[in-house]
Amino acid sequence: MQKQVIVVIGAGSIGQAIARRVSAGKHVVLADLRQENADAAAKTLNAAGFDVNTTTVDVSSRTSVQALVKTAASYGDIFGVIHAAGVSPSQASPKTILKVDLYGTALVLDEFGNVIARGGSGIVIASQSGHRLPPLSPEQNMLLATTPVEELLKLPMLQLDKVTDPLNAYQISKRGNSLRVMAEAVRWGKRGARVNTISPGIIITPLANEELKGPRGAGYRRMIELSAAGRAGTPDEVGTVGALLMGPDGAFITGSDFLMDGGVTAAYWFGELAPK
């Protein structure tokens, strides 16, 4: 009997937290852009009793993603995909954000949607930022959701004379992720598999701690203070939602986006965080 494989793309705290909840008794393939990041995360998971192998992946390269699929399939049936890789507005230019966060996610969904096992499921980590983008037109929604992967970055709405700010690129990318997952859920469903997005708010990770100290830190702290929860979230809380969506209790959920931000988006549209 083939072993079930969980593929974790992005070795950060959120991907690890979900993996801990869904990978007992399964084989984990942990992939990151940097081998040392994957190895460090695997050391922690192996010490906790998980069966983990590591590799590298560049989600903005189809050849690299295809190599990851081949590697993962060599261990057994690909039963779960946790896509938690990406770059933030403080880390990269609009061009890189669109290439990694938007195109890269579409590519991962495309390639793993060809091999995901019956009964399997996927999670894409999007962001609360996608919920703060003003509404797009039905045509724009359709284009982000269904344009063939290799044509996606050629869309007029994504050209760099229109998307000039890293935050705007990030918001478009994350909105695009949730739309893409909704469309991909139809294709994955034909294989008997499910896929959803989680859109976290400020989750305390090493990267978030850096962001809170950086140039956008004051804005992030204000979001936390004026949210209903009054605090940031934890990777384990995202892991709990991930476990629901990837497990039997979530068997009726696919093509959905789960916003978990402590009420920041509610305060942005209807509360004290609303733009003046």
Description of the molecule:
The chain is an alpha/beta fold. It is 45% helix and 16% strand. The protein contains ten helices and seven strands. A seven-stranded parallel β-sheet has the order 3-2-1-4-5-6-7, sandwiched between helices. Helix 1 (13-22) crosses helix 9 (235-246) and helix 3 (62-73) runs parallel beside helix 4 (94-112). The longest helix is centred in the middle third of the chain and has 24 residues, at 166-189. The chain is globular.
Please summarize what this structure is.
45% of the residues lie in helices and 16% in strands. With 276 residues, the chain is α/β, with parallel strands linked by helices. The radius of gyration is 18 Å and the shape is globular.
- The low-confidence parts are none
Helix coverage percent: 40-55%
Strand content: 15-25%
Largest sheet: 7 strands, parallel
| Average pLDDT score | 96
Q: Give the distance, in angstroms, between the N- and C-terminal Cα atoms.
A: 60 Å
Shape: globular
Going by helix content, strand content and strand pairing, the class is alpha/beta
Order of helices and strands: EHEHEHEHEHHEHHHEH
Tally of separate helices: 10
Radius of gyration: 18 Å
Q: How many E-type strands?
A: 7
Strand order within the widest beta sheet: 3-2-1-4-5-6-7
